[in-house]
Amino acid sequence: MYFMFSGIMKIPPVDKKMPGPEDLPLTILCDNIREPGNLGTILRTAAAVGCHQVLLTKGCVDLWSPKVLRSGAGSHFRLRIHKDVTPENYYKYIGEDSSIFLADNNVDIEQEEESLDNSSESDSDSESENENKIDSSEHDIDKSEPVSQMNYDCISLVPYYSINYTSQSSIVLVIGGETEGLSNFSYSLAYKRSGMRLNVPLSNNVNSLNTGTALGIIAFEIKRQFLSKQQIYKQDLKQSVGHSF
């Protein structure tokens, strides 16, 4: 006869972990990640890359669900994690000087540029016909208004490797769920902070990547740049010390 016992333990305060000396100035904002395996992979990647903190918006899967714990492989205890982040309290975790980047791997840059070119041509034709009727002041951009998923093309889209991340004092990388994608809150945050959408170029007609995979590619590029800068600094310091003798 076999008996199975279920243990009970107190949930540790994962939001109290102190930053480590090798932590990057990187915050990963999980926007509505509902698949447990994906969230666990994101946490594992975040711990491996050495990010400063992970934020979970309301709507994310339970941080302590068995599948998240299993795929996280102990990363819960190596990270500072804040749950239930909302448009009302996000400012507690994201500073005013933070640069916002949206991991938007579902968009092809060439297709978007072609679409924008076509739309701008049609807009210019329309404006030329009605230039005497339109007041240009009516079309000034108001960044106090929320930006929706329907008009997110007002946020610049660039390849993930084209950014100099080391020039940013604080980086916020937003990753959305595979099904729901990024929320209006994330788009609005990036828009108001003059953020950018990051694209991972894909081949062989592959439309998108798993959220954890996309995060890993971008996050480790950020780490690579900081390590490279650190190595250059050490070499310059060594040379300057050598010349002083």
UniProtKB/TrEMBL annotation:
Signal peptide: none annotated. GO terms for biological process: methylation; RNA processing. The keyword Transferase applies. Keywords: Methyltransferase, Transferase. It comes from the Eukaryota. Residues 111-144 are annotated as: Disordered. Residues 26-101 form the tRNA/rRNA methyltransferase SpoU type domain. This is tRNA/rRNA methyltransferase SpoU type domain-containing protein. InterPro entries: Alpha/beta_knot_MTases, rRNA_Methyltransferase, SpoU_MeTrfase, tRNA_m1G_MTases_N. Residues 111-129 have a biased composition (Acidic residues). Residues 130-144 have a biased composition (Basic and acidic residues). GO terms for molecular function: RNA binding; RNA methyltransferase activity. PANTHER family: RRNA METHYLTRANSFERASE 3, RRNA METHYLTRANSFERASE 3, MITOCHONDRIAL.
